UniProtKB/TrEMBL annotation:
Xref: NCBIfam families: B_ant_repeat
Keyword field contains Chaperone: no
Ranges of Basic residues composition bias in the record: 9-21
Biased composition (Polar residues): 103-114
Region (Disordered): 1-28, 90-116, 603-705
Record's protein name: DUF11 domain-containing protein
Boundaries of every DUF7507 domain copy: 372-477
Keywords associated with the record: Membrane, Transmembrane, Transmembrane helix
Listed Pro residues bias regions: 675-688
Bilayer-crossing regions: 708-732
Membrane is among the record's keywords: yes
UniProt lineage: Bacteria, Bacillati, Actinomycetota, Actinomycetes, Kitasatosporales
Length: 742
């Protein structure tokens, strides 16, 4: 049935197996045709849904289509974003003095280990981020110790320059879990600031390292790289030899373990000492020569794409400054879940061989567009300690809320709300425009695990942020959730539900009693349940008299809702009543159910109802009474089965008795109308005087008495319906012919 005002259903036609159609005039095709005509008559038309556009699995995300998260050129005299932290020889060539207060601490390139040529002239803009000069055994790194959201994936683009020396070592770029305090890089040399090397640790919270490796040791597992990795995650390079000019990916690691080999742009070559050769379509470094301008001609533009999937697809594209644009050099499907937020870093080093290493124009954006106000909620745990902790009742869960403005205008004020975290503190009340040093901030808050948090073995809660744009418009964020494991405690709540009777008459008052008892050893706070009256109020009125011995009970729509605290051994009793309509025009069944979301709850069924008394069968209307009794017994049986099958809900059903119909009095014989002689045992008729009569003899009563007339009416209805169906078929055929001929 299509209700007035409802939306018409879409009819979808799908090809099926071919089969013979129904014979002409048969009923096999009448019902579907009639149903289709009815739908079309009511809807007026039907719409075939358009096919949805589904991304191809493994398809490469489009760079540049997401939201800008960070934009730094490194070409000025200072770096405004204090999140950038220089290590060792890293410096800013355009700087001419100490950095301004409140900005990055990256200073000028004026120290003795920063000026070995060829390097850019210090103090001249536009400049570069310089990781190392051309001196031997140099190490320099730039860390970004502010988290970036990972819920939209990540696209990182930057220019790298390596030139001037004899080809060592290379530049490493790495992503780490945004939960760590990123203050140190990994080992230098062939580990490129990401992986471990001998007894030197890799970077904290490492997730993905990309080695832009001119010398080529990042691709092999010597110097303890990849310690503890399984056989399937070991480098194919089995000798301690470099594979020069390669791009290699390494996976998650911590300390001296992990940082396993993932993939590399190389291919077997038995003629090489390593047994492999690079497959890159260009060089990562630039040699000096006629017509070469350094460092400009050494630019190689790198694009790293990390898809927003839980286990992301990683793609590396490089523009080799040869006029061919970006060329894909690697693609790898991660098998480790991505962190919720990222931090990143660059590292460059030299050894016995050397090169100058520079960086410019880093931009980071999401793969897919984010909300103007983006929120990522995480549990504030230290990934360097291993697995996420399991909490128990009474423990404090620390949370972080990364709020990012991806819009072109500032937002002020900005706040974060979470129903379970009431002590949220943010470092600021405003956010700057996208890509700026103030476009994001990290708020903190805590929650103490309660008994009720432990019922399911995990705790999940959701936060949302709100901002206001310069015009006063409200800017909500996406909701963001975090889940922690909790030591599970099992509550023991027992519900029971009874009614004052199992059968009522119109005008009667029926009283209900609901009892909830905590039979366990732990408090239930808050405890709650609902009493659904939607199956009662079609036959009765709630009298507004609900009371509870413990807690609070209130009517909400067609339900009664109780909330409160139940300590071990404590009970609450709720009572209320309803009055049956007179006359009752509902379904004559007060169906009443109590339910709760508290896990482990059981329902104590009420005692079985006594068998209904069988009334004396009246001499008239017996068929109607039997039908009524059968209906009542069927409802009672259904209610009994429901009580046995559903625990909870607790169900207490009451049948509303229907008054028996008043028998129709037998009409008295009318004067002058002969009464038919009842059929009986044949007897010899008495002699009757011969006479002439004009009164016709009454027609014989057909078998079945008055039921025949009803049967004839039903047959006429069926014949009428059949005639209507045939007419509709003729009309449809005529309309189809008309369309075909038009």
């Amino acid at each position: 049935m299509i209700r007035p005002g409802s939306r018409c259903p879409r009819l979808r036609f799908r090809p099926g197996p071919r089969h013979p159609g129904p014979r002409a005039g048969s009923r096999a095709g009448a019902a579907p045709l009639t149903a289709a005509l009815a739908v079309l008559a009511l809807c007026g038309s039907f719409v075939l849904p358009a096919a949805a556009s589904v991304p191809r699995p493994g398809a490469k995300p489009r760079a540049g289509s997401g939201s800008v998260l960070l934009d730094e050129t490194f070409q000025g005299s200072s770096i405004a974003d204090p999140g950038f932290m220089p290590l060792d020889t890293a410096c800013l060539t355009g700087a001419s003095g100490p950095p301004p207060a409140g900005e990055s601490t990256t200073g000028p390139c004026t120290a003795a280990d920063q000026t070995t040529p060829p390097v850019p002239t210090p103090g001249v803009t536009p400049g570069w981020l310089q990781l190392t000069d051309q001196g031997n055994y140099r190490v320099g790194a730039m860390l970004y110790n502010r988290p970036l959201p990972g819920n939209g994936g990540l696209v990182v683009t930057f220019d790298q320059y390596q030139y001037g020396g004899n080809g060592a070592d290379g530049i490493g770029f790495f992503l780490v879990n945004g939960a760590v305090d990123l203050t140190t890089a990994g080992a230098d040399g062939g580990s490129l600031g990401y992986a471990q090397r001998n007894n030197d640790n890799g970077v904290d919270g490492g997730y993905l390292g990309i080695g832009l490796d001119a010398y080529g040791n990042f691709a092999n597992d010597f110097e303890n790289r990849g310690n503890g990795c399984p056989a399937g995650s070991r480098s194919p390079v089995s000798v301690n030899e470099p594979v020069t000019d390669t791009v290699t990916l390494r996976g998650p690691g911590q300390g001296l373990d992990g940082y396993c080999y993932l993939d590399s742009a190389l291919t077997p070559d038995p003629g090489k000492p390593s047994g492999f050769v690079s497959t890159l379509p260009g060089n990562l470094r630039q040699s000096a020569g006629p017509g070469i301008t350094l460092p400009d001609d050494a630019r190689r533009r790198v694009m790293l794409t990390v898809s927003p999937d839980p286990e992301p697809l990683v793609t590396v594209d490089i523009d080799f400054n040869d006029g061919k644009g970006y060329q894909q050099v690697l693609q790898y499907q991660m098998t480790d879940p991505a962190p919720a937020t990222y931090k990143f870093g660059f590292s460059g080093s030299t050894g016995g061989l050397s090169d100058t290493h520079l960086i410019r124009n880093i931009q980071e954006s999401s793969v897919v567009p984010l909300d103007q106000l983006n929120l990522v909620k995480t549990v504030d745990w230290d990934p360097t300690r291993g697995t996420v902790p399991t909490y128990q009742v009474g423990d404090t869960v620390p949370y972080k809320f990364l709020v990012t403005n991806t819009g072109a205008e500032p937002l002020d004020p900005v706040s974060v709300t979470d129903p379970l975290v009431t002590d949220i503190v943010c470092p600021s009340t405003a956010l700057g425009p996208k890509g700026s040093p103030t476009s994001s901030m990290e708020c903190t808050g805590t929650h103490v695990v309660t008994v009720n948090d432990s019922f399911t073995g995990e705790l999940t809660n959701t936060a949302v942020a709100h901002g206001t744009d310069p015009s006063g418009g409200l800017v909500p964020s996406n909701p963001s959730s975090a889940t922690v494991d909790v030591v599970r405690l099992t509550p023991e709540l027992v519900l029971s539900k009874t009614a004052s009777t199992t059968e009522a008459k119109p005008g009667d008052t029926v009283s209900y009693t609901v009892t909830a008892t905590n039979t366990g050893a732990i408090p239930i706070d808050p405890a709650d349940f609902t009493d659904d009256l939607s199956g009662v109020l079609d036959d009765a009125d709630y009298n507004g008299d609900a009371t509870a011995t413990v807690g609070t009970v209130v009517p909400v729509g067609k339900t009664l809702e109780w909330t409160g605290t139940l300590n071990p051994g404590e009970s609450t009793t709720i009572t209320y009543s309803v009055t049956v309509h007179d006359p009752d025009q509902g379904d004559h069944l007060l169906h009443n159910a109590v339910n709760t979301t508290i896990p482990g709850t059981t329902c104590t069924p009420p005692p079985p109802a006594p068998a209904p008394a069988v009334a004396a069968t009246p001499t008239t209307g017996a068929g109607t009474h039997r039908a009524s009794r059968a209906t009542t017994e069927a409802r009672t049986d259904r209610a009994s089965r429901a009580r046995r099958a559903l625990t909870p809900p607790c169900i207490a059903d009451v049948t509303v008795a229907q008054p028996n119909p008043t028998p129709t009095p037998t009409p008295s014989p009318s004067t002058g109308v002969p009464t038919p002689t009842p059929t009986g045992t044949p007897t010899t008729p008495a002699p009757t005087p011969t006479s002439t009569s004009t009164t016709p003899a009454p027609a014989p009563t057909p078998p079945g008495g008055g039921n025949l007339a009803a049967t004839g009416f039903a047959a006429a209805g069926v014949l009428g319906a059949a005639a209507l169906a045939v007419a509709c078929g003729v009309l449809l055929t005529t309309r189809r012919r008309g369309r075909h001929n038009s």
